[in-house]
């Protein structure tokens, strides 16, 4: 039986109806589908806009954060008037205004172990717009357990990537990254920065892949990684083979996956790598020798600094350009390294120990933001 559409639906989706290889049948599939979108950030915003515009029947959106001014550089669902509001609420209003024919369920909550499997089970496709490894592994494992495909996207700096995982026996996220990276080795967008338009490019690719999966058109990015470099406009497609071991998942771990690579935690079984603000203040008040290194970029120091400190941006460490500035510090003296949030400084501390001979160097946990919060 041919699908039937109201006059309003026919007018709204006229370009889809006229599209060879798509037509009313594919549109009907979209309208009968449910998409779970995790996160209304840089990736989620463009994906949500195009999924709603395309006429996906039910969109479930999860995001527990509130809109901040710094989001507006790339999160195009929001405007200045939304600052301070829950992203889920603001996004829901915008999407319903864009297409009132779509059912939008916007929830100001996180995607966690307790709700993961149920949310994934009720969706046809999952679009992950999160920005941390813990959530990505949770998404992957829940989708494997519930046999649902999911669309992956990630951005950093000027580069982005996307793929489709767990589609018809194809590769999973664990085929690409079997285990989470070591804490502190991968900064998030707040630490490393991101070109504002880049998440838009990747988010639209994610929306495209979701629409292809739901409507049954084209060749999904399963078994392939789409890589994009905004500076050169170079696009590469890299093959990814499936590893059967990646599907050996019995259940989600009871203690979750931890915020690895986003908020690194100290390993109490190893030598101390971090120091909190309270401990740092005790060192500052003590009589022993102490030196401080600020690894933030020049523009970040406009917000203030912890003095006296030596400024050695992390980028110089990674380009072997730190040596002249490090001449001002003594590798034999206790050293505390800080950045904005504690991720770059943890990496810099390890570089100082492993490549510059520093005997005792600690990273300030949660960085300058924690220092400002506790300064009073």
Description of the molecule:
The protein has helices at residues 7-12, 14-17, 23-31, 44-54, 87-98, 113-121, 133-146, 173-176, 189-192, 198-215, 277-285, 314-318, 323-326, 344-355, 367-373, and strands at 34-38, 58-62, 103-107, 125-128, 150-156, 159-165, 224-229, 234-239, 274-275, 291-294, 310-311, 335-338, 361-364. By secondary structure, it is of the alpha/beta class. The protein folds into 2 domains: 33-247, Rossmann fold, CATH 3.40.50.720; 274-373, Rhodanese-like domain (Oxidized Rhodanese, domain 1), CATH 3.40.250. The strands form 2 sheets. Strands 3-2-1-4-5-6-7-8 form an 8-stranded mixed β-sheet, sandwiched between helices. A 5-stranded parallel β-sheet has the order 9-13-12-10-11. Helix 4 (44-54) runs parallel beside helix 5 (87-98). The termini are far apart. Mean pLDDT is 89; it is low at 259-270.
Structural class: alpha/beta
Q: Looking at CATH, which topology of the largest domain would you report?
A: Rossmann fold
Low-confidence stretches: 259-270
CATH superfamily of the largest domain: NAD(P)-binding Rossmann-like Domain
* Largest sheet features: 8 strands, mixed
Total DSSP helices:
15
What distance lies between the first and last C-alpha atoms, to the nearest angstrom?
70 Å
> How would you write the strand order of the largest sheet?
3-2-1-4-5-6-7-8
- Element-level helix/strand string: HHHEHEHEHEHEEHHHEEEHEEHHEHEH
What is the name of the CATH class of the largest domain? Alpha Beta
Report Rg.
Answer: 23 Å
């Amino acid at each position: 039986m041919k699908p039937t559409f109201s006059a309003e639906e026919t007018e709204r989706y006229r370009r889809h109806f006229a599209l060879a290889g798509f037509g009313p049948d594919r549109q009907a599939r979209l309208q009968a589908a449910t998409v779970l979108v995790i996160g209304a950030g840089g990736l989620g915003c463009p994906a949500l806009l195009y999924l709603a515009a395309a006429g996906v029947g039910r969109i479930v959106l999860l995001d527990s954060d509130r809109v901040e001014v710094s989001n507006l550089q790339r999160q195009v669902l929001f405007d200045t008037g939304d600052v301070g509001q829950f992203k889920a609420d603001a996004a829901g209003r915008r999407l319903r205004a864009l297409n009132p024919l779509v059912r939008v369920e916007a929830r100001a909550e996180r995607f966690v172990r307790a709700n993961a499997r149920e949310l994934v089970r009720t969706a046809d496709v999952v679009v992950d717009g999160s920005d941390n490894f813990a959530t990505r592994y949770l998404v992957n494992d829940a989708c494997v357990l519930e046999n649902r495909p999911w669309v992956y996207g990630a951005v950093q700096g000027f580069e982005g990537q996307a793929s489709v995982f767990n589609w018809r026996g194809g590769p999973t996220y664990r085929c690409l990254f079997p285990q989470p990276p070591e804490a502190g080795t991968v900064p998030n967008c707040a630490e490393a920065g991101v070109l504002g338009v880049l998440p838009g490019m990747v988010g639209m690719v994610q929306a495209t892949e979701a629409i292809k999966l739901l409507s049954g058109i084209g060749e999904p990015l399963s078994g392939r990684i789409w890589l994009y470099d905004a500076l050169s406009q170079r696009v590469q497609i890299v093959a990814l083979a499936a590893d059967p071991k990646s599907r050996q998942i019995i259940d989600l771990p009871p203690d979750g996956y931890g915020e690895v690579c986003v908020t690194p935690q100290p390993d109490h079984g190893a030598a101390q790598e971090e120091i909190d603000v309270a401990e740092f203040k005790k060192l500052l008040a003590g009589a022993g020798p102490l030196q401080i290194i600020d690894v933030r970029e020049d523009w970040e120091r406009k917000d203030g600094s912890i003095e006296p400190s030596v400024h050695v941006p992390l980028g110089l460490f990674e380009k072997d350009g730190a040596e002249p500035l490090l001449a001002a510090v003594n590798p034999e003296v206790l050293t505390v390294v800080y950045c904005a949030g504690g991720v770059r400084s943890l990496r810099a501390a390890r570089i100082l120990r492993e490549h510059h001979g520093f005997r005792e160097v600690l990273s300030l946990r949660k960085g300058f933001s924690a220092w400002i919060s506790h300064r009073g």
